[in-house]
């Protein structure tokens, strides 16, 4: 059985990992800041679904096979990198394409809450829980570094004789709980600034920053850094 000390140490490690600004933080902040509340929570749930999958696969030894297989790891790395570069590039292209098409009516929305249909019509984003979940889960599952992290860290906290699957799910649950608490803080912070961040000019700059961050992560992944 895993001791409380081991759980506390694991929580400290993944807590620091969660607090480190990265791709997940950028996705959640950008989505929530633009007023896509349902989609933002979908992104959070999708990311954590991916974390749970990585935890289960690692506890069963599947991700160890992934990291041991050069071809499998490289394939996942390149697919993940291509997806991130595509997603970041899509955001950047949209900001330049729509920069001259913003209307005064769109600029006047301010911090008003939009329905899902209005949000999609005005921003081109499908503000649904499912669409956010899909984006979050795909982004997480196509990141082989998550698998490598769990392969390196998880076995150290599973004692001999304990159920690997139960222990892996427990530890992944600790990671998920901390990540959700942090996501709540990010979404609350974004809600405070949402009125300003929904202005078309500010939204374009936010999308450019987010798109650059996401594409940069993809490039780094492609370069193996």
UniProtKB/TrEMBL annotation:
Superkingdom, natural source: Bacteria
Keywords assigned: Cell membrane, Membrane, Transmembrane, Transmembrane helix
Subcellular location: Cell membrane
Residue spans crossing the bilayer: 6-29, 41-66, 78-96, 172-193, 205-223
Cross-referenced InterPro entries: LeuE-type (IPR001123)
Pfam families cross-referenced by the UniProt entry: LysE
Protein topology in the membrane: Multi-pass membrane protein
PANTHER family in alphabetical order: ARGININE EXPORTER PROTEIN ARGO, ARGININE EXPORTER PROTEIN ARGO-RELATED
Name of the protein in its database record: LysE family translocator
């Amino acid at each position: 059985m895993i001791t409380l000390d081991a759980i506390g140490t694991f929580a400290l490690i993944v807590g620091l990992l969660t607090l480190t600004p990265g791709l997940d933080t950028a996705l959640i902040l950008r989505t929530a800041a633009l007023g896509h509340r349902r989609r933002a929570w979908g992104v959070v749930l999708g990311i954590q679904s991916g974390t749970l999958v990585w935890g289960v696969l690692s506890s069963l030894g599947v991700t160890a096979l992934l990291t041991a297989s050069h071809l499998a790891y490289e394939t996942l790395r390149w697919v993940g990198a291509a997806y991130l570069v595509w997603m970041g590039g899509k955001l950047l292209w949209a900001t330049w394409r729509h920069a001259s098409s913003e209307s005064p009516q769109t600029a006047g929305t301010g911090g008003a809450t939009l329905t899902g249909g209005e949000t999609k019509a005005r921003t081109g984003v499908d503000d649904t829980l499912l669409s956010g979940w899909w984006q979050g889960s795909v982004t997480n599952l196509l990141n082989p570094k998550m698998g490598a992290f769990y392969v390196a860290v998880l076995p150290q906290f599973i004692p001999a004789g304990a159920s690997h699957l139960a222990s892996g799910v427990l530890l992944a649950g600790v990671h998920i709980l901390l990540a959700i608490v942090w996501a709540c803080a990010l979404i609350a912070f974004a809600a405070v600034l949402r009125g300003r961040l929904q202005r078309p000019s500010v939204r374009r700059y936010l999308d450019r920053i987010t798109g650059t961050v996401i594409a940069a992560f993809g490039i780094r992944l492609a370069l193996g850094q």
